[in-house]
Every structure is written in C-alpha cells, then in structure tokens.
C-alpha cells in the first residue's frame, strides 16, 4: 500500500485528494502547512509527496529544495499542485525538485495517472538502487505505520474517552 503525504491549505482540496487517493487503496496523511509537512516527512515516510504550490510558512519550492538536499527524503517524488491563478515558472519548479506539476482543478483520472507514474518510477529506482535497504523492519517504516495507525484511530479514541468522562460525571451528579 502506497503512503502519500498531501499538503494543501484548502480543506476542500484536502478532502478531494484524500477521497481520490484513499479510494484507490492508498494511505493518505494530510497537512495544511508547509512547516508541518516538513516535520511530518520523518514519521510518515511517504512514497510520494503532493503539495500545493503556496502553503503557509513554507511553499512548495522551499519544501522541494529541503527534500532534495536531505538524503532521507531526496528519492521521494514530489508533485506540485498549482491553482489556475498561480503564476510560476515550470522550469524553476523542476529545478527546485518537482517531479510533476498538475494544474487544479484536476480530474481524478489525471491525478491518479500522475501518482501512479511517480510511484512506479520510485519503485523502479528503489529496485535498482545499489543502496537499497533489504531490512523490511527498519525503524522509519515501523514509525510511519504506528503514526498512521494512531492518526486513523484518534477520532474513535477521542469519542470513547468523551463518553466515559460524560458517564463518570453523570454518576457523580
């Protein structure tokens, strides 16, 4: 199962991206801020990073340059998602580290085609890499799995704890 880190400050864009990608069996971790995306890279350990061009605190260019400079992140493909009104130079985006650029709003099939192409490219690079790690139980993968499990379980835990507190308080009254 592929893991995607999705960064966009638009709640609608996040929901749509989550819906499209998770509908294809991908794990999606969403963030709304560039600095948060940068921090989450380590614990999410994504197979692909999709980022809106202009996020609060860090934009896509800054994030891509950071990732390409860090050995732990340099092989993660980056897809820039640009709004129709966003002005930027595509060559500058590619120079910063964008592996693909899509203009919003995009159709699900266009997004999925781009995502699949980038994931396949990464899989091939990993397979042929002389530095490929053969240990399936590396710390980063385990941490990412635990983080994803907590992210998905958190709403249910909050609801259960709320019910228990309400119940406990009703016995005291």
Question: How would you describe this structure to a colleague?
Answer:
This protein is of the alpha/beta class and 173 residues long. The chain has six helices and five strands, in the order βαβαβαβαβαα. It has a five-stranded parallel beta sheet with strand order 2-1-3-4-5, sandwiched between helices. Mean pLDDT is 86; it is low at 132-136.
Biggest sheet: strand arrangement: 2-1-3-4-5
Q: Note the total helix count.
A: 6
Q: Give the fraction of residues assigned to helices.
A: 40-55%
- Mean pLDDT across residues: 86
Listing every helix as H and every strand as E from the N terminus to the C terminus, the arrangement reads EHEHEHEHEHH
Largest sheet report:
5 strands, parallel
Q: What is the topological layout?
A:
Layout: E1 3-7, H1 11-22, E2 27-31, H2 34-44, E3 48-52, H3 60-69, E4 78-82, H4 90-96, E5 100-103, H5 108-128, H6 139-172
Parallel strand pairs: 1-2, 1-3, 3-4, 4-5
Helix pairs in contact: 2-3
Entry keywords:
single chain, 173 residues, alpha/beta
Summarize this structure briefly.
The chain has about 170 residues and is α/β, with parallel strands linked by helices. The protein has six helices and five strands.
């Amino acid at each position: 199962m592929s893991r995607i880190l999705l960064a966009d400050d638009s709640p609608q864009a996040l929901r749509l991206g989550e819906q499209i990608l998770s509908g294809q069996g991908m794990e999606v971790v969403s963030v709304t801020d560039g600095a948060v995306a940068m921090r989450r890279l380590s614990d999410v350990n994504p197979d692909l990073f999709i980022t809106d061009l202009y996020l609060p605190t860090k934009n896509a260019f800054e994030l891509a340059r950071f990732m390409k400079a860090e050995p732990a992140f340099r092989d993660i493909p980056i897809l820039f998602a640009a709004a129709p009104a966003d002005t930027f130079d595509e060559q500058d985006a590619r120079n910063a580290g964008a592996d693909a650029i899509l203009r919003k709003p995009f159709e699900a099939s266009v997004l999925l085609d781009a995502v699949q192409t980038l994931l396949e490219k990464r899989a091939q690079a990993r397979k042929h890499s002389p530095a490929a790690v053969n240990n399936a139980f590396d710390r980063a993968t385990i941490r990412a799995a635990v983080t994803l499990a907590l992210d998905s379980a958190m709403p249910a835990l909050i609801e259960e704890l709320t019910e228990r507190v309400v119940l406990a308080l009703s016995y005291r009254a």
